[in-house]
């Protein structure tokens, strides 16, 4: 199992003493530990902006995160739970926060946690500072401020940081919407949701950038809007798919063919999806865990458009060459990431290089996973040429085949020709379920 499968970080509060900020967390790992994690002001204020600490909600800090080097911006996830319902809240964070979160994630035992310089279990920042405790807190690099100043400054600080957060959140949303090719006007108008045009609202809901609960967000709109949204959501059901019944699948029944894409998500994911949508055909994406951490928005784009997703392991290792424990880790970590992003159980797994053994089969059987292989390899990874990729497919018997492709520019260039050729043969291009 993955190292952090047994770790849960419940966020109990965000506290401030003078100019120092702390996350009050309860870590469940071998035992329950109450601790205070010193973080930067930027991350703390962004967390406070998305979390309301009361008796209604519980919050869990996710180990899923990524840092966008292009825009020098970190993003992490907070899961909010109420009764049996949960939702993901994304918040902006610093690179230091991500590094420290990963340090917690990779700890193998409690003694290693004790060595982390940014955490402490010796005191509670929620307590009023006492004079006799000052010396101890100085050792922990905590400045003790006079009580009277804290209450005067806090409302102003909260207001200022709230404005900063919303400006930054809007900027990040702008970047993501541009990545997905959405109209810039839709983002600007959606700040005041009621002013956005109907088509802009549909685009935003379709791509999961706003809450898709139309009964809440569109309560003031007429039935035409509700029908329009319903039409968008129902488009996903038009994608042809086939349920896989066997533990291991190499091919499909005659008359059907599957286009499968490995090694994503990547900079090519969105364009591949858009081509599949244009031709109204199926597609299945086998994604690598490390790439999911880099491009979670592309995973969401694939899934929100109704296409099938499966795991291609966490690190693209040769499964038959690693220990049983490592095999489980590679499968479970990647499945956990996919399920956290997609919000549903994922059962498809494609072992890298098609390599697996009896142990992998047993894990798949025990967890109701489906191992998906292929029987048609045009060697796109090798030739890297659109015409050669197409010709390699054309020179094979494609009926009943699962075609192995990878996310690349050459595949994008070859894809329309491949689809048209398969359709001319009267084949149904399906997604795998």
Account of the 3D structure:
The protein is of the alpha/beta class. The chain is built from 17 helices and 16 strands. It folds into three domains: 3-149, no CATH class; 180-238, no CATH class; 239-432, Glycoside hydrolase/deacetylase (TIM Barrel), CATH 3.20.20. The strands form three sheets. It has a seven-stranded antiparallel beta sheet with strand order 6-5-4-1-2-3-7. It is elongated and about 70 Å long. 34% of the residues are buried.
Key attributes of the depicted protein:
433 residues, alpha/beta, TIM Barrel, seven-stranded antiparallel sheet, six-stranded parallel sheet, 17 helices, elongated
- Our count of domains comes out at 3
SS field, number of helical segments = 17
Distance between the termini: 25 Å
Largest sheet: 7 strands, antiparallel
Annotated CATH topology of the largest domain: TIM Barrel
Strand order of the largest sheet: 6-5-4-1-2-3-7
CATH homolog superfamily of the largest domain = Glycoside hydrolase/deacetylase
As a percent range, the share of helical residues equals 40-55%
Shape: elongated
What Rg, in angstroms, do the CA atoms define?
A: 25 Å
Number of beta strands: 16
């Amino acid at each position: 199992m993955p190292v952090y499968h047994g770790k849960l970080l419940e966020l109990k509060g965000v506290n401030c003493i003078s100019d120092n900020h702390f996350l009050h967390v309860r870590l469940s790992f071998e035992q329950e530990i109450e601790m205070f994690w010193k973080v930067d002001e930027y991350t703390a204020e962004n967390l406070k902006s998305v979390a309301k600490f009361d008796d209604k909600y519980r919050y869990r800090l996710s180990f899923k995160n990524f840092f966008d080097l292009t825009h020098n911006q970190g993003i992490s996830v907070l899961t909010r739970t109420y009764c049996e319902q949960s939702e993901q809240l994304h918040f902006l964070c610093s690179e230091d926060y991500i590094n420290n979160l990963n340090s917690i994630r990779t700890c193998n035992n409690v003694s290693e946690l004790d060595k982390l310089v940014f955490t402490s279990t010796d005191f509670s920042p929620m307590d009023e500072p006492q004079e006799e405790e000052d010396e101890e807190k100085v050792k922990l690099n905590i400045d003790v401020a006079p009580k009277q100043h804290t209450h005067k400054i806090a409302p102003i600080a909260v207001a200022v940081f709230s404005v900063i957060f919303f400006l930054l959140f809007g900027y990040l949303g702008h970047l993501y919407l541009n990545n997905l090719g959405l109209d810039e006007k839709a983002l600007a108008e959606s700040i005041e949701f009621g002013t956005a045009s109907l088509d802009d609202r549909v685009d935003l809901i379709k791509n999961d950038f706003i809450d898709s609960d139309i009964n809440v967000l569109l309560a003031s709109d007429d039935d035409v809007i509700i029908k329009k949204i319903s039409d968008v959501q129902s488009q996903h059901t038009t994608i042809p798919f086939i349920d896989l019944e066997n533990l291991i699948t190499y091919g499909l029944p005659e008359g059907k063919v599957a286009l499968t894409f490995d090694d994503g998500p990547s900079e090519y994911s969105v364009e591949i999806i858009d081509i599949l949508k244009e031709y109204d055909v199926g597609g299945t994406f086998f994604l690598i865990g490390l790439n999911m951490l880099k491009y979670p928005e592309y995973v969401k784009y694939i899934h929100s458009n109704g296409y099938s997703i499966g795991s291609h392991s966490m690190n693209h290792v040769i499964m038959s060459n690693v220990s049983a424990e490592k095999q489980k880790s590679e499968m479970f970590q990647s499945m956990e990431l996919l399920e956290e992003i997609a919000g549903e159980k994922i059962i498809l797994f494609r072992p890298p290089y098609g390599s697996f053994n009896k142990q992998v089969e047993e894990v798949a059987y025990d967890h109701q996973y489906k191992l998906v292989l292929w029987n048609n390899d045009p060697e796109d990874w090798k030739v890297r040429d659109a015409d050669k990729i197409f010709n390699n497919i054309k020179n094979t018997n494609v009926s009943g085949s699962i075609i192995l492709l990878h996310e690349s520019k050459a595949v994008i260039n070859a894809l329309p020709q491949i689809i048209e050729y398969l359709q001319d043969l009267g084949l149904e291009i399906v997604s795998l379920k």
